[in-house]
Amino acid sequence: MNPLVQLAAEAEKENPLIPPWPELVIGLIAFVIVFGFLAKKLLPTINKVLEERREAIEGGIEKAEAAQTEAQSVLEQYKAQLAEARHEAARLRQEAQEQGAALIAEMRAEGQRQREEIVAAGHSQLEADRKAAASALRQDVGTLATELAGKLVGESLEDHARQSRVIDRFLDGLDDAASKAEATR
Q1: Cα separation of 139 and 91, whole Å?
Q2: DSSP summary character for residue 17
Q3: What pLDDT score was predicted for residue 26?
Q4: Which residue has the higher pLDDT, 21 or 142?
Q5: CA distance 185 to 181
Q6: Which tens digit of pLDDT belongs to each residue from 82-106?
Q7: For 119-134, what is the mean pLDDT?
Q8: Going by C-beta distance under 8 Å and a sequence separation of 6 or more, which residues neighbour residue 170?
Q9: Cβ-contact 131, 152 below 8 angstroms
Q10: Taking a C-beta distance cutoff of 8 angstroms, is the pair 167, 141 a contact?
Q11: Is this structure's pTM higher than 0.85?
Q12: Helix 43-153 and helix 160-184, axial crossing angle in degrees, nearest 10
């Protein structure tokens, strides 16, 4: 046969998808060596790095949870302090209002007392002025009445004791008349 036909017949016998046995055995031995090397050297290092990463992540989570717990406690403290500050401010405001009301009441009482003192002083001053005016009026009226009576009678009424009696009777009569006039009103 022709060498070309013979080569084609041999090629048809061999399946190109199935490798020859010696290549298959050498490939399998190489695979086991590489897999063993990876399992002995590389895999523990990879596992160690993965474990460290996992611990770091878990530690980070724990730290984050601890930080969150701490932040929550700080927030609660802040809220408590804020509530206490608000309560204190309300208490101080209430005290200030009470003190203001007491001060206003005290100032009103002081003003009322001063007003009453001023009114009493005014009344006493008026009474003293009225008495002084009445006394001065008595003397002036007495002098004028004595002079008028002296002119009417034609004799001098210079006697002081007599003059005082006449003046007193005249003024008492005027006071009685004024009292009766006010009583009828």
Answers
A1: 71
A2: T
A3: 94
A4: 21
A5: 7
A6: 999 999 999 999 999 999 999 999 9
A7: 88
A8: 141, 142, 145
A9: no
A10: yes
A11: no
A12: 120
pLDDT at 172 over 90: no
H/E element, 20: none
Please, which pLDDT band fits residue 147 given cuts at 50, 70 and 90? Answer: confident
Q: Name the one residue in this structure whose structure tokens are 């001023």.
A: 118
Tell me how far apart the alpha carbons of residues 162 and 146 are, in angstroms, rounded to a whole number: 10
Q: Please report which helix (H) or strand (E) contains residue 1, including its range.
A: none
Spatial distance between the Cα atoms of 157 and 153, rounded to a whole number of angstroms: 9
How many Cα neighbours within 13 Å face the side chain of 150? Answer: 15
CA distance readout (Å), 163 to 113, 131, 151: 47, 21, 14
- 147, 166 contact by CB (below 8 A): no
What is the rounded CA–CA span in Å between residue 32 and residue 100?
97
